[in-house]
């Protein structure tokens, strides 16, 4: 579960950066119609991409948590948190894939 927390923390950090870019873009749009015409479409694309990425990460994390709960439920109480190394690698790999796809989408 540590990687889930790390991924969500990184999303929070990126959110701060995106907010800063939005603030700068708002200032630039006040410089006149020429700046506004350039900045507004790029800001709209940033907003859309960031929204898609954050929703993708959040949905993947919810799915991951559901799968982990299913595994925990299927185990007896004495081995509740004893994932095999293969299970850990599978979970970590899937989260990395989601993050990679999400970051790629953000920077397109």
UniProtKB/TrEMBL annotation:
This is Utrophin. It comes from Salmo salar.
């Amino acid at each position: 579960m540590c990687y889930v927390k790390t991924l969500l923390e990184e999303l929070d950090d990126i959110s701060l950066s995106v907010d800063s870019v939005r603030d700068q873009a708002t200032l630039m749009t006040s410089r006149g119609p020429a700046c506004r015409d350039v900045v507004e479409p790029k800001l709209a694309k940033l907003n859309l991409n960031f929204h898609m990425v954050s929703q993708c990460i959040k949905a993947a994390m919810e799915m991951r948590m559901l799968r982990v709960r299913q595994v925990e439920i299927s185990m007896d109480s004495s081995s509740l948190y004893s994932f095999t190394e293969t299970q850990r690698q599978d979970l970590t790999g899937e989260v990395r894939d989601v993050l990679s796809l999400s970051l790629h989408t953000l920077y397109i």
